[in-house]
């Protein structure tokens, strides 16, 4: 589970005689909060803007605003240049933004007709605005969103076209190999057991660990195995940012001895094997004490190979659709929906836990589904008119067509169901997993990917069947998110998550990890800021989806479809009368 690994300082012991299992990038939870999935460049064009100038056309500028996570306040992100005398500007200045699949980034584009040199926007004529999310732009066909400009009552304000392009540096990985010579001897009875620790520098001058090599035993001249790391993790795409490398002598008790350190940068490393990439390992304490101190050995770069990876956005841009299905637990253990203590309580003033989880996840995923039609299922209830128990019923009451329009349509169908069905039991997951798996099995060409959100209050009754269903589904283009609501123990759900031990059924292991579980109670904000706590919930449950998606595509050898040709604005030809 990306972002929920051990803190960077903790070592796990591996199987081979207490050697530490050297952490990979995914083990450091600091990374999940600080590295954007990628960076995208937004280009803005407008057509048929309002004309506010009497003797000439408007002189437009575009101003972009963003909202911080869980915050309603709009902050200015940047401005384009001013283009004189046009109603159809194609702005040259781009906006470069961090893009996270798992976060909802609200955007507001404001347009003004500039009348003077004043940077104060209130001094210029307002031409209208457009609201959207970054996901909406990226999820549109060809990552190109066209929307009407609004904001001036009774006026047609024209349209805006925003295109998102992923920046190339964010998808590169580097394969590097290092060796060292004449490192300081740190062990009393043998030589040192050296390993390297890489840190990237942050904006504030602090350092974040991003890679550890393996330990090479009993040598002062180690050759480490080549390792692969993304350029984002190594330097956040900034080629001149300092990279600090520390050299340690491994000790069984975890009190590793510091041998020394050196600094470099991506740009220096990219020169490859050369005299520029032989580094003196310096121990500042020794240097301060001993006059004749030269160094504590040298580290040499042996190879440096750049690999460009295909990204999640390549597939989205090529037209892959993400289909979202919801399954809601209607078992009796949730409590009577008419009672305030019930997890399904229909409070007219506030969403219940089911509604909050559904909205938090659904509002982000819906940007990647072009028709915004979502199947919504329930399980564990008795249905009218005959009271039969169903573990796979349509919330809208139409088994032939369980689709609801948008997240609002799903919420409406959920509330309607609460009024018509009887909460019962048991808690069976397998039928809804198999329901989505049937659809996923019919499109394995990479054009569609399925995400099932199960919201449940607890203890699962069909564990063996559910494991079997998950193992089968791990071969299909689908992921499963489980949100546990209420106070129950969710030990069984942790087992399904498969982060610690890969899930298996009757001796067969899942091909990929496709389940992500989170308990809703971990996200309840005591201060009552539900907006922020639900943004955190969505971030944690959706963070693994792009990697699960890519793992399916890689295993199947599916390449992204080519994106549709880029949009070229129509050229306005002046027609002359003959």
TrEMBL record:
InterPro entries linked: C2_dom, C2_domain_sf, C2B_Copine, Copine, Copine_C, VWF_A, vWFA_dom_sf
Record's keyword terms, sorted: Calcium, Metal-binding, Phosphoprotein, Repeat
GO terms for MF: calcium-dependent phospholipid binding; metal ion binding
C2 domain residues: 20-147, 156-279
Keyword tRNA processing: no
One Pfam family it belongs to: C2
Annotated SMART domains: C2, VWA
GO annotation (BP), single: cellular response to calcium ion
A cellular-component GO term for this protein: plasma membrane
Annotated SUPFAM superfamilies: C2 domain (Calcium/lipid-binding domain, CaLB), vWA-like
PANTHER family: COPINE, COPINE-8
Cited function: Probable calcium-dependent phospholipid-binding protein that may play a role in calcium-mediated intracellular processes.
Protein name as catalogued: Copine-8
Record organism: Vidua chalybeata (Village indigobird)
Gene responsible for this protein: Cpne8_1
């Amino acid at each position: 589970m990306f972002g929920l690994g051990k803190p960077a300082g903790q070592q796990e012991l591996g199987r081979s005689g207490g050697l530490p299992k050297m952490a990979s990038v995914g083990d450091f939870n600091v990374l999940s909060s600080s590295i954007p999935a990628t960076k995208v460049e937004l280009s803005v064009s407008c057509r048929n803007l309002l004309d506010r100038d009497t003797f000439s056309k408007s002189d437009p500028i575009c101003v972009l605003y963003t909202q911080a996570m869980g915050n309603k306040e709009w902050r200015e992100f940047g401005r384009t240049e001013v283009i004189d005398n046009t109603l159809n500007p194609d702005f040259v200045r781009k906006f470069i933004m961090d893009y996270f699949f798992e976060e909802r980034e609200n955007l507001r584009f404001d347009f003004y007709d500039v009348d003077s040199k004043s940077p104060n926007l209130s001094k210029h004529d307002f031409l209208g605005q457009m609201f959207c999310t970054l996901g909406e732009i990226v999820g549109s066909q060809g990552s190109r969103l066209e929307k009407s400009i609004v904001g001036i009552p009774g006026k047609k304000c024209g349209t805006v076209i925003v295109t998102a392009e992923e920046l190339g540096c964010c998808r590169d990985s580097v394969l590097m190999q290092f060796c060292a010579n004449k490192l300081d001897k740190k062990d009393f009875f043998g030589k040192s057991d050296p390993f390297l620790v890489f840190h990237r520098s942050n904006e504030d001058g602090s350092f974040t660990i991003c890679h550890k090599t393996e330990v090479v035993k009993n040598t002062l001249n180690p050759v480490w195995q080549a390792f692969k790391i993304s350029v984002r993790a190594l330097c956040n795409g900034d080629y001149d940012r300092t990279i600090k490398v520390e050299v340690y002598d491994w000790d069984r008790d975890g009190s590793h001895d510091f041998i020394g350190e050196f600094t470099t940068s991506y740009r220096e490393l990219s020169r490859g094997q050369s005299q520029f990439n032989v580094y003196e390992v310096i121990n500042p304490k020794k240097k301060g004490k001993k006059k004749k101190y030269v160094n504590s050995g040298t580290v040499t770069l042996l190879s440096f190979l750049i690999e460009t990876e295909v990204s999640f956005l390549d597939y989205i841009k090529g037209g892959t659709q993400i289909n979202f299905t919801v399954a809601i637990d209607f078992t009796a253990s949730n409590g009577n929906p008419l009672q305030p203590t019930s997890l399904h309580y229909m409070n007219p003033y506030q969403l219940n836990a089911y509604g909050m989880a559904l909205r938090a996840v659904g509002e982000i995923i819906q940007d990647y589904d072009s028709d915004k039609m979502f199947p919504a299922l329930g399980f564990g209830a008795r249905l009218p008119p005959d009271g039969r128990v169903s573990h796979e019923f349509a919330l809208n009451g139409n088994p032939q067509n369980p689709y609801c329009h948008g997240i609002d349509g799903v919420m409406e169908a959920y509330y309607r169901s609460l009024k018509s069905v009887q909460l019962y039991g048991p808690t069976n997951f397998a039928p809804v997993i198999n329901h989505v798996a049937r659809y996923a099995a019919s499109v394995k060409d990479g054009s569609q990917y399925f995400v099932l959100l199960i919201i449940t209050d607890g203890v699962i009754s069909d564990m063996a069947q559910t494991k079997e269903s998950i193992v089968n589904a791990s071969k299909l283009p689908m992921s499963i998110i489980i949100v546990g609501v209420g106070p129950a123990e969710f030990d069984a759900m942790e087992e399904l998550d498969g982060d610690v031990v890969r899930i298996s059924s009757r001796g067969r292991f899942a091909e990929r990890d496709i389940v992500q579980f989170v308990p809703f109670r971990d996200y309840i904000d005591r201060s009552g800021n539900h907006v922020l706590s639900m943004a955190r919930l969505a971030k944690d449950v959706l963070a693994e989806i792009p990697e699960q998606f890519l793992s399916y595509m890689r295993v199947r050898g599916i390449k992204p479809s080519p994106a549709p040709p880029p949009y070229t604005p129509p050229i306005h030809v002046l027609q002359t009368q003959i």
